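Researcher: Before we compare anything, I want clean individual predictions. No alignment, no superposition, just each chain on its own. First chain goes here; please echo the sequence and then give the structure tokens.
Model: Echoing the first chain and its structure:
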Amino acid sequence: MTEPKFSDLLRQHAFLRFWFTRLAGTAANQMLMVAVGWQMYELTGSAWDLGLVGLYQFAPVLLFTLVAGYVADRFNRAKIVAVAMAWQWLVAVILALASYDVSNAGSSSHSAWLSRELLLGLSVVLGLARAFQMPAQQALIALLVPAPLLPRAMAFSASGMQAAVIAGPALGGLLFVAGASVVYLTCALLFTVGITLALRLKYGHVRVPYERPTIGSLLAGVSFISQRKVLLGAVSLDLFAVLLGGATALLPMFAKDILHVGAWGLGLLRGAPAIGALLSSILLTRWPLRTRVGPILMSSVAIFGVATVVFGVSENFVLSLIALAVTGAADMVSVVIRQSLVQLETPNEMRGRVSAVNSVFIGASNQLGEFESGATAAWFGPVGSVVVGGVGTVIIALLWLRLFPTLARRDELAPQTPSPETKKPGD
């Protein structure tokens, strides 16, 4: 069999349409988050309210993602993505109108339109839209490319997302100079592009007769993962690595008190992991992982932990940037392997619910990781918090070698048996 090339991926027109859909939607969402956070801080000057914006977005994900996974397995996934983007488009338009009124009608309009309550309420809508969008979006990729191309497709898709994560906030910050309404209208335009592309996305969707959802059908994704050591090990490894090793929440403290670089340095520190992830995803697109994926996964998590420790003890700004870039690059290797395993090991009729569980794990690790960083920083200081987290991540990688030997020994990404793996003694 001829080895698939990158040029073969570029011939997958449905996948390319999906790639641009995700690029537009991610860039718009990132710009939206920057503008909402900035306006909340302008209105209230409260760090607590900034935290509430994130919490209000995460709560719907935690509450509705399992339902969203069930929906993704029964209905057209491309249309679900389009509807979710339509809700985000509506939020952008409402905020554009509110911000326009504020800038043109004085303070009385400020209290009537743009308020803390409006921003928090719309944050819930954004979280609900993302809760339904993520499982459907993740479960789509495997339907758009042949299985041998999936690792390249995962890496290429991740590179587009990372580019949007970098460019979206930067563009949003620049446009904010012209007014918040300009940012929100630009977001609405990008969401319009994403909706249009998603509605034109065709794949072999099979209509499933309606059956009333049950607790068992909603939790089927949880059951599926728990019965497969490879998937359980990969998903839980990412959860604990990000939970312990994330230093994002403490970057303002490092920028101001340890590295003494101010706001401009904070921006570079926040962008460094995304730049490392982007470079890593480009390399994985060009040279996809084919063998020894288990050992590479474990090694990437350990490297993530070591780089986190280096960042924690560094007092040199350049070294800190390099360390953060390495964490982003190592994390991207882990993400590509994990998501490829999830898609390849899961039958199509279960991908939505399994992707939903994966989404909850990702969201929980990011949100709880920020809380963990803050709590340990209160006890040990920022340096102690980051170092303890990095060391904990390395320990987790070593522990998972013993707890999940099937994953640690995994050679190829492609499923090694067509049915659920047979449990072996010691697994």
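Researcher: Okay. Second chain, same rules.
Model: Second chain and its structure:
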Amino acid sequence: MKIFSTEKDALETNLARKQSETEDVSIVVSKIIDRVQQQGDHALFQLIEEIDHVRLDSLTVTRSEIEAAVQTVSPELLKVMKQAKENILAFHQKQVQQGFVLTKENGVVMGQRVLPLAKVGVYVPGGTAAYPSTVLMDVLPAKIVGVKKIVMITPTDRQGKVPAAILAAASVAGVDEIYKVGGAHGVAALAYGTETIPKVDKIVGPGNIYVATAKKMVYGDVDIDMIAGPSDVLIIADASANPRWLAADLLAQAEHDTLAQAILVTTEAALIEQVQTEIDLQLKELPRKDIAAAALETSGKLILVKELEEAIAIANQIAPEHLELAVAEPFALLGKVENAGSVFLGHYTPEVLGDYFAGPNHTLPTEGTARFYSPLSADDFIKKSSYLYYPETAMKAAAPAVELFAETEGLIGHARSIKVRGEEEK
């Protein structure tokens, strides 16, 4: 891991991490989307064989496959999934918005309705790892607000099977339909529909650069949650932090992906040396050590600062997906955090608690987008519609003001629309 001693040097090198959408990726994804739009299921079967090297007889995950998966996973894992479900529901229930109505003395009524989306597509990654936790995090907020149909897509293994833990999580979460497809072709199927897969109103869930590029390309035809890139964590630590725990937290992030980013910012020079030693020791025991080592070598950073205020300033500029405050008084720093997807307070709140179990959503803005994006929430699965009622007297009272606005903008038809309502019938 690279060591930096000034805020300026750290920031100049850090933000080059953003995974760019290359021209080649865009061309490939555009062609895939076109094929799916034109050929539907036929294109999906071909692309699954070409890209994933799997030959499928059907895209649909059957009820019997789901039931078999539930029987396959351990009772302990099912119990944990159900506990996590309750925690996630409890947290996201607090986010549910209500409509409102405003009535004025002159009889004017206006308000806002909060309505669930009709159909949502949930993308669950496969490939180097399968994430049943993503199923719970992305499906349950949609269930809370009353989305009518939740469609999940996920790639299979080389035998054409979806991992049992993924299907069990889908059963626990209450997914309505599941299909065996991933990648850009899966995103295109959700966006435009095929003979088998229904067109949805919104697509949520993380994926690789092809998935992210496809989501960007179909946005506007459907809504999306965000453009997710490689995962990242930034840890702010003081003298009270345990170097063994810090090393474990950095490695937990690094094992995600060779492009993942793990950063430690601390006021203690000795802590940096201790963490380096611990990383070397713990890395040897990690099954995904090659991935973690590559991530740390490419994007890992150890930053020494003079005071915690400087550490917070760095965090606010980097805008990490996950921010751990491994300090003696974490709540004293929380109010100073401006840009972070999710904040983990104190020595006993590692980021992995949020990944799986605690309740706040783990689908978070990456690559510095916490400056303007928010975590996935119940808000992502609703739309709002306003309404307005004017009685005759109130309309006539407002007419001169409306006419003046319309005439100022040169829209005489607009002015006429309200003026005719004030004229006496002939």
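Researcher: What stands out in the second chain?
Model: The first strand starts at residue 2 and ends at 4. Additionally, Residues 84 and 357 are 5 Å apart (CA to CA).
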